[in-house]
Amino acid sequence: MSNDPNGIYFLGPKGSFSNEVADMLEGNKVPLKTISEIFQKVENEDNVIGIVPIENSLEGPVHETLDNLYKYDKIYVNSYVEKEIKLVLAVNNSINKIEDIKRVYSHNHALQEAKAALQRLNLMNIIPVESTSAAALYASKDREAAAICSQYAASLYGLRILMNNIQDNLNITRFIIISKKITINGDRTMIFFNVPHKPGSLYKALEKFYKYNVNLTMIYSRPLKVIPWQYYFYIEFEGELNDIRIKNLIEELRNVVTNIKVKGSYFKLQFQALDFLS
Amino acid sequence: MSNDPNGIYFLGPKGSFSNEVADMLEGNKVPLKTISEIFQKVENEDNVIGIVPIENSLEGPVHETLDNLYKYDKIYVNSYVEKEIKLVLAVNNSINKIEDIKRVYSHNHALQEAKAALQRLNLMNIIPVESTSAAALYASKDREAAAICSQYAASLYGLRILMNNIQDNLNITRFIIISKKITINGDRTMIFFNVPHKPGSLYKALEKFYKYNVNLTMIYSRPLKVIPWQYYFYIEFEGELNDIRIKNLIEELRNVVTNIKVKGSYFKLQFQALDFLS
């Protein structure tokens, strides 16, 4: 496709869950170390996109993503993907049975998620590392080790999977695709705003959504940092900017909130994707 | 005082910012490793209190604290303390000048806060550890090391302070004192609730606050975990349960929200403290 992006930046390292999402898309894929670096690249280069996690069904919104969306006024959300996070217990090829495992590498969040299974299997020597894919890498180089990681990372680093689905809970992460082009069609729309520091100000903002019968799918507050104990709001709602009703809602919102940032409308990614870059 | 608590559990290790808050109180102080352990102890023992961080002016609410307040129906908030988080660059006594520092230990958050200073001083070999007080401990045992930590931790572990106030931003953490006794006097009140999964439900909750002219100081959402993409709300507002207006507000709220949890009213801690345990 002539409208392929010049680069697809995703949260690395290779084998991460973001990497799996990136593999749904065509283009030159580049892992980066932090969410903030992805936003910097998307801001400074032309015709590139970024893939970042925005929310997890157990942990809530990803603060680094929200803070960057709030910071970069020219970066928009074009699409989203939901991915179920499934974890496996994978071992170095030298290991034949669970009793041979001397060490288990993983990321702290994944270790939390697999806590019950680790106790049941009596795996007590746990080593927290920077990511689940780094855990797979370390286990591939340590003949006495296992990793808690994705099936994808296990296969990337040649580990053998001893157990599937060792997480305790249903765990879904939502990723967004970001670029410098705004999209105005979709079933969801994202905005950020501040409210004046006086009684009833958030109420007056939500009143507009009620008036237009628009359903919020998410409301979240984050500290403004520059002023202690003041916050900005992140709101996602059903509807699209291409709809006159949503346009009017946003115009009315401007009367009761400050610093409104409209981040675009978007659909769930359906694999053909990327037409918004044409 | 005969009404001193039998135990004051705080988030350790020794030398932590929670330890500094605990030192404002009289009683038998015990550091614990996690916020969740503190809630367990307060639930299971009689006449004890806990001290946990609830919110930071840069990072926002502390999720482990909110999730535990939501989980334990019989644990209430009795008081709060605001503490400015000041960081120092402290060194092992073998070190005479900044050029001698080979390694800098600290917690990730503190390293973020001191980033500009570390770059300016050309201190590039950074080792993230589990807490700022652990960093001080490690630096006390490593003749080539420095720590980014509190003045309190530096003095506890016999380090020499080379620079004060090396953090970039004004950084305030709010701590709460929790126990099994509800308090109904204060300038703030805390509640949690769920809203029905239909349009306008949060709006209808906030309408009650507007009707009673009650100012929210915080509103925050957290995933319910058991059902993906559903949330509970944490709200703190001005006023006290001892006031008939607030009592009526909460009764009316019950008509529009579900699973309401009232966590008590409380003042900022003023050092005499602890009378609520009588």
TrEMBL record, chains A, B:
Q: In which pathway does it act?
A: Amino-acid biosynthesis
Q: Which InterPro entries match?
A: ACT-like_dom_sf, ACT_dom, Preph_deHydtase
Q: Could you tell me the keywords of this UniProt record? A: Amino-acid biosynthesis, Aromatic amino acid biosynthesis, Lyase, Phenylalanine biosynthesis
Q: GO annotations under biological process?
A: L-phenylalanine biosynthetic process
Asked if the Swiss-Prot or TrEMBL record annotates the protein with the keyword Lyase, the reply is yes
Asked whether the keyword Amino-acid biosynthesis is assigned, the reply is: yes
Coiled coil regions, renumbered to chain:
none
Top-level taxon of the source organism: Archaea
PROSITE patterns, sorted: ACT, PREPHENATE_DEHYDR_3
PANTHER family per record: PREPHENATE DEHYDRATASE P PROTEIN, PREPHENATE DEHYDRATASE-RELATED
Q: What is this protein called?
A: Prephenate dehydratase
